[in-house]
Amino acid sequence: MAFARWNGEHPAISDLATGTGPDAASACARALGEMAENLSIGAGSHPQPVPAIGRDGKVIVADSRMLIPAGSADPGSEGVAAGETMAEAKIAALYERIERAAYALWWGGGLAARKAHLPTPLLRQYRQAQTQRRSMLWHLPLMNAVTICLVLTDDGQCGQIAMGTAAHSDPHRAADAALREALQAEIAWLAPPHHPDVVHRDAMHAALRSRLPVLLGAGRTVVDRGGDGDPLLRIEAELVGRGLDWGYADLTAAGIGVPVVRCVIPGWPLARPILMSPNRADGAAVTQSLASFAYAAAVGG
Fold first, then answer.
1. What is the b/e burial string over 232-264, where b = at least 16 CB atoms within 10 angstroms of the residue's CB?
2. Where is the YcaO domain (predicted)?
3. For burial by CB atoms within 10 Å, which of 17, 138, 188, 297 has the most?
4. Phi then psi dihedrals of residue 218, to 5 deg
5. Is pLDDT at 293 greater than 70 in this prediction?
């Protein structure tokens, strides 16, 4: 795991960034990528609105920046990704938008998780010493062309739950990323009682613990890699088939130069309200509340 802190004059939405990976180089690269996102998506880098444009040239969202202070309907950094190239940033942003939509739909009861096998080599790679923690994997079957993974770890007795989610056209890469995110979340259980992260950690734990019995009783998944060919084309073809609009916004900051893209899909909910306040987003009303956090609502569309 790597941590980055920004000390420059350029305004950032956060001066902290983290990254994980199987080695120091990949963890540092991810932390720097997250910092590039922090520096690129706010009004400090883009004084004027940055629209998200759909495949037919239509404006899908009038302004894709993250505004400070962020309102409850602001998308935050959801659906944003950096990459070495614009193409890499674009598909990474699409993966994140799909991942968060699947998570929000599952949380609200609109998508049933399916049990999956967490590859033993992944656990051995990251769990380098003996641990009493249990690691579990489910798939969130929102799309055929993308594997969306939900990983929960706990102390073996439904205590100290940590969560990670990720999406990718390659099931192994999706599971790897979700596991790394869950392992990062475990660090919160090492925090002292008065640490500012404790309140959110405990709220997320309580909400996940109430869902764990259903998850443990879920049926097994059948992995569909979605066929061969360009993953971006396959995913976008599936979105077309579902009648969904989507678009991309180029949020690359001129003074930084690292490609940063936001993907928007107005017809799917955001996970941001859940991640910000898991206790308030809990319960039967979550599906209705999620609808108000669509990107279209965020811009009055």
1. eebbbebbeeeeebbbbbbbbbeebebbbbbbb
2. 1-301
3. 138
4. -70, 155
5. no
